[in-house]
Structure formats: structure tokens, C-alpha cells
Amino acid sequence: MFLTGAGAAATFLASCGVGGGTTEGADRALKAVFSQPITDLDPHAANTAVDEASLIAKYLIFDTLVRRNGTEIVPSLATEWKQADPTTWVFTLRDDVSFHDGTPLTAEDVVQSLKRIQSVTSAQTPLWAPVLSAEATGTSTVTFKTDGPLGTLPVNLTLLFIVPAASANSPDFFANPVGSGPYTVASFVPSSSLKLKRSDQYWGDAGKVADIEMPYIAETSSAITSLSTGEVDLLWPVPADQVKEVEAIGDATVERIPSYVYYFNWFNCSRPPFTDANVRRAMWHALDVETIVSTLYGEGAEVMTAPIPSTVFGYAKQEPYRHDPDLARKLLKEAGMADGFSTSLMWFAGTGPSATELAQAMISDWAKIGVKVEAQSIEKADWLQRLNTLDWDMDLQTNTVTTGDADFTLGRLYTSAANRLGYSNQELDAVLDKAHSIAEQPEREKLYAEACKTIWDEAAGIFPASIVTAYGRRKSLEGFVPVASNQPDLSRISLNAK
Q1: Which of these ranges, 13-22, 68-77, 363-372, 488-497, has the smallest mean pLDDT?
Q2: CA-derived radius of gyration, the chain
Q3: What is the pLDDT of residues 375-385, one digit of tens each?
Q4: 300 near 243, Cβ under 8 Å?
Q5: Is the separation of the CB atoms in 162 and 62 below 8 Å?
Q6: What is the pLDDT of residues 444-467, one digit of tens each?
Q7: Which of 373, 388, 375 is nearest to 347 (CA)?
Q8: In this model, does residue 469 exceed pLDDT 90?
Q9: Other beta carbons within 10 Å of 131
Q10: Is the peptide bond before 325 cis (omega within 30 degrees of 0)?
């Protein structure tokens, strides 16, 4: 998932004006390398909610009304908010915010940003569909109307980036966009490099360094070389099998944190034999999940105990499916499949770490109970088309709970109306709808615990591993905080001169 090869690394090093060393201190740029390219800077693009690389940049360039701080939703552009009635939310904005070009940010910019994101069909569409309107009820007041109670509006607003209403629909605007965040765009080459400069207009605490650079280095080995020579200050995620290389660098260290990223193996629950929950359970009991995860990932992943990672709000621990091939065969026999059956599993190699190896390990265990699985490693475009048309038997992929809230995954993917995996359960629909509508967090937590149990017990999918992100950084960095979202706040990092 990391310019390719030694030649690309040399090009990058040369572009930094380096021949085997670097200038230390705060007068140089912070250089941070993520494992995926930044493809665009449009915060309302169709892929924004699931594109971790672009989100890192967009949180530096743009602002949102609120932001997440651990498990809390805290003010950003909005100083306060209230639910005036079950279908009305009122947000009061700061009155001292300007965009990078000096234009004041007003409630009308929020209104137009919502309209723009609602006009794009994307993974975020279900989040904004219940919002009927947003109205500027004052220069610094925005009133949202929803089609029913919507307790998740504040957490969803952590993904609504505010852009200037007058410029947002200009065709060239997002090649060099203007936001209100702590950094401005100095230059951007899609899927290659992004250079940012500290904004003099920012309303909050100024960025710690004057410049941030985010080059894309396709090969992890080249990125690690750049870290060891001092040309890169921070890189992540470091694959589990390359962590020792980073730990061997004298001026570097590795910090790990369980992330919002996890693997699932979905069953197409609308296609026999996976219409039968016992067949799905048999497939899970056939897997030696603990051995597979330990062997493939070591400290790079954790065995899951719910259909969402433990880092996510709404997580509730479930009873693991024990590895029991005899029970798996018994369940198949009861389902009228004593001799097993044939099926298929699709994935694309770039979905996550060791995706192909994970698929092969699962296929091997299934063969032991008489289930023959055709391996279908396909191109991402083909995979996406088939996924969205339910043209598959089983689907292996990673997913990210972008907001850190269970509603983003459970409420978006597992309802009957979503029909993402052919699974339909009206009782689950009712639980998720209620959790979606109320604002009280303790009550929401109880409802998501119920939803976790239903999805787990019904074996709508198999949830083998949540990813532990390893950050490799130079020891001289100050203020770096590893985060589960894979989106560390680069504006809080400073460079300590030797």
C-alpha cells in the first residue's frame, strides 16, 4: 500500500536538497509519509469518508463544525449546539473565523457545504439523507432540520468540511483550495506530493511547524530508508513484518495503537447456502482465527470479539466462535450439506495488509470441512462493481469506522434498506434506527451492544482481525500522538533541533 523502488526514493531525497544528511530544527518542513496516496483535495468527493490519506490532509486545510477528541465531540467552528426539538438542531458558530483568502466564514458557507455533500453519491450519503435542510438563521447560526430524530448529527458533522460558498463549485477550486484550517496549500500533485504552509489567518492555535510535506512513497522499504537517513520524520502504518527494520534505526522509534480499521468476511446472505445462518456459523467454527491472526500479523493485529473494533464507540464484547471443525461439519449436516459445497471468495490485494495470505489461510481451513472455495483476487474496480451489485458469494475486505462511532458502520451497512450483503433483520433495523435517532450516549451504547450481539450471533459475516497501527517516527519529534483513526494531527508536531 507505499514514487516506487530505489530510483523513486533517490528522486525524493534529491528533491529535498539532501546528499546524506539533513538540516535539523524548526526551519525545515515536517515530512510525513502515509502508506496511501492523496488523490484529491475535494472534501466532498465521493471517496472522502473512506479515503484515510485525503482525510489527513483535509483536516489540516479545512474546518468542521465539531471534532472528535477521544470519545467526546468537542467544539471547532461551532462554539455550542443544542437539539431545539426532536427534529431541529441549532449550531452557533465562532464569529472570528476567516478563510485563507481573508473572506469571513459565515453560516451560509455551512449551508452550501451541506448542499454540496448531499449532491454527491458516496459512502457518506446515508449520513446526510435524513437531513432535510440547513438554514442560516443568523450570520453565525445554522439550523438543521431532519426527517425524524437524529441523535447522530453531531458525530456525522465531524465529516462535513466547510468550504467558501462562492467558490466551491468552481471547476479548478480544489486544485488549490481555500479553507479555514491551520495550513494552506503550497503545491499539490495528485497521488504524488502535497506541500502545506502554516496559515496566518487561522483562528485557533497556530501549527507548530511552518511547513508540512506529505510525499507518497509507494514502497515501504524506500520509506523506511528515508526515515533512517533523516529525510522522513514520520511514516505509518508500518507493516508488521517490517517493524523490526524501523526499530533498528537508532534515531527512530515505533508506537502502536489499536485502530478503527478491521477485516471482515461478508457472506452474501441472499444467496444459498448462506441464506442459512447455521451454514454461516459452520464457516466460522471451521476457522482457527487465533492461529491465523497470530501467524500473519503478530503484534500487527488483534482477534476481534465484535463486528466493530474495540476502539469504536458502541463496541460490546461477544463470545468468540471457537475453532471446532467437528461442530462445523455437524452444522453443515443439519443444513443438508453433509458432503460440503462449493463457493467463492473475492477480494482485491490492496484492501489491507496480507489480504491474500489471509484469504488463503481461510480457504485452507474451509477445505478441511469439505467446503471448496474458489479464490477470486480481482482488480479493485471489478471488485467494487461486483460488491455493489451483490454479485459474489463471500467478500473479504478491510473497513474503517471513520467517525469512531458504531453508527457509521452498523447503522450504515447492516440495515435491510442498505442491502449491502443481502442480510435483512427487522428487529435489528428497529434497534439501529432507535440508536440512530437518540442523542443520549449511554442509551446509544446499550443499543449498539444489542446490535453487535445480533450481527455476531447471526454470523452475517466473519470478523477475524482489527489492525494495530504501527507509527515509525524520529525520536526528535515532539507532540506526536498516535491515534486510532490513522489520521494524526500533524499541526501539533514540532521538530526538535539536535
Answers
A1: 13-22
A2: 24
A3: 999 998 899 89
A4: yes
A5: yes
A6: 999 999 999 999 999 999 999 999
A7: 375
A8: yes
A9: 20
A10: no
Q: What pTM did the predictor assign?
A: 0.87
Burial of 389 from C-beta contacts in 10 A (0-12 / 13-18 / 19+): exposed
Closest CA to 359 of 342, 369, 373, 371: 373
Nearest by Cα to 109 from 140, 87, 151: 140
pLDDT band at 10; cut points 50, 70, 90: very low
Helix 289-297 × helix 355-367 angle, to 10°: 150
Q: Count the residues in the chain.
A: 498
What pLDDT sits at residue 427? 98
8 Å CB contact between 176 and 100: no
- Joined together, the cell numbers standing for residue 152 give 447522530
Q: How far apart are the first and last CA of the chain?
A: 32
Residue 21 near residue 234 (C-beta atoms within 8 A) = no
**Is the separation of the CB atoms in 469 and 181 below 8 Å?**
no
* C-alpha span between 360 and 366 (Å, rounded): 10
Residue 47 to residue 123: CA distance in whole angstroms: 7
Q: What is the pLDDT of residues 274-292, one digit of tens each?
A: 999 999 999 999 999 999 9
DSSP string, 81-96: EEEEETTEEEEEEPSS
DSSP 8-class letter at 313: B
Q: Please state the φ and ψ torsions of residue 457, each to the nearest 5 degrees.
A: -65, -35
Instruction: State yes or no: pLDDT of 314 exceeds 90.
Output: yes
Chain-centre distance of CA 238, in angstroms?
Answer: 16
Provide the grid cell at 489: 494531527
